[in-house]
Write a structure and sequence with these properties.
Blueprint lengths: L5 H11 L8 H22 L3 H10 L3 H13 L2 H29 L9 H4 L6 H19 L7 H7 L3 H12 L3 H28 L2 H7 L9 H44 L4 E8 L2 E7 L7 H10 L6 E6 L4 E4 L7 E3 L5
Parallel strand pairs: 2-3
Antiparallel strand pairs: 1-2, 3-4, 4-5
Helix pairs in contact: 1-4, 1-11, 2-3, 2-5, 2-9, 3-8, 4-5, 4-10, 5-9, 7-8, 7-10, 7-12, 9-10, 10-12, 12-13
């Protein structure tokens, strides 16, 4: 494997290390693009528009300081490592804040319960870590190899950085704190994967030697640093493993609840709009003409079909949301978007 030369090393540091001065070209470009990407992502999520969210992914500049952190790790450059890490953290907080502002303005009655852009980002799994590792590898590879730099737009689309943060902000305003934490975990997964794979690729291509030859400051790279990166990835994998198990359990629960809900609705000439499970809670959307069917009857039907340990959240379209806890035949009325 051919390593990078001094020219490539300087090009990489110029591209990834953002200047400290707010009015510098790299810093102003980062913050302007980040704010715009956050607004686009938030609008795309609120409008449930995949195309708009993809546009935000392409515009978002967060990949730069994340890969800059990996490069700074490889060069053992503490100053740039701290600066890049702070940019990632500050940028993430800015996107979440913009998402919260949009959430306060929009505030949908169902608290994004039926939004596909939200639901796709609140159940991170091990497969997401695997995809992030592969995508981060491609991104770092494209930086060290100018002949494949055309792949970077595809990398920007494949790695989800700004949209999960926008979802986090929106869900915080909807008081869905657990789901907000899950979307933030997806972002953290992608960041850890990019840093880990970027570090490996930069080391494999001899970036340290090229930087030293170019007269750049290169510190002592310790094994503990690389070990810390590996530990972070492993720690991220723990909740993702739990998430994978939870998703599998929820899919089975939703599959079992579907026919029960359909029979209950058909008896009352209503229609089932959606059936899903979230963290062991059966969430059913139903619509039809008055009078509304009795939620307690559905609760009883689920109990008789082996789902007595699952809570029930029933959304009557155009009406209220009913909360029917497990192990009870009593249902109470709540505002939409519980959890």
């Amino acid at each position: 494997m051919a390593g990078v030369d001094t020219t490539a090393a300087r090009r990489m540091t110029d591209a990834l290390f953002i200047e400290r001065a707010w009015r510098s070209r790299s810093s102003s470009r980062f913050w302007v693009l980040l704010v715009l990407a956050a607004v686009i992502a938030g609008a795309g999520v609120v409008g449930d528009s995949t195309a708009t969210v993809i546009g935000a992914m392409i515009v978002a500049p967060l990949m730069t300081p994340i890969l800059g952190s990996a490069l700074a790790l490889v060069l053992a450059d503490r100053e740039h490592l701290v600066r890049s890490a702070l940019l990632v953290l500050g940028g993430a907080m800015a996107v979440v804040a913009i998402g919260m502002l949009l959430g306060w303005v929009v505030s949908p009655p169902d608290a994004f319960a039926s939004n596909s852009q939200v639901s796709s980002r609140i159940s991170p799994r091990l497969i997401d870590l695997l995809a992030a590792l592969a995508t981060g590898t491609v991104g770092a590879f494209a930086l060290v190899r100018t002949d494949i730099s055309d792949t970077l737009p595809g990398v920007a689309i494949a790695i989800s950085l700004v949209p999960p943060l926008a979802v986090t902000g929106l869900l915080i305003t909807a008081h869905r704190y657990h789901d907000a934490g899950q979307s933030a975990l997806l972002f953290a997964t992608n960041v850890a994967a990019i840093v880990a794979t970027g570090t490996v690729v930069f080391l494999a291509y001899g970036v340290r030697a090229a930087a030293q030859e170019a007269g750049m400051t290169v510190g002592e790279l310790r094994g503990a640093t690389l070990g810390a990166v590996a530990v972070v990835v492993l720690l991220i994998a723990v909740p993702l493993t739990a998430g994978t198990v939870t998703v599998a359990r929820d899919r089975a629960l939703a599959a079992n609840a579907q026919p029960v809900a359909e029979r209950w609705a058909a008896e009352r000439s209503w229609q089932i709009a959606s059936v899903e499970a979230r963290n062991g809670i059966v969430v059913i959307g139903v619509l039809g003409l008055p009078p509304q069917p009795a939620p307690a009857a559905l609760r009883t039907a689920l109990d008789l079909n082996g789902m007595a340990d699952a809570d029930l959240e029933l959304h009557l379209v155009g009406g209220r949301t009913h909360w029917c806890p497990a192990d009870t035949a009593t249902c109470t009325t709540h505002e939409a978007g519980r959890g």
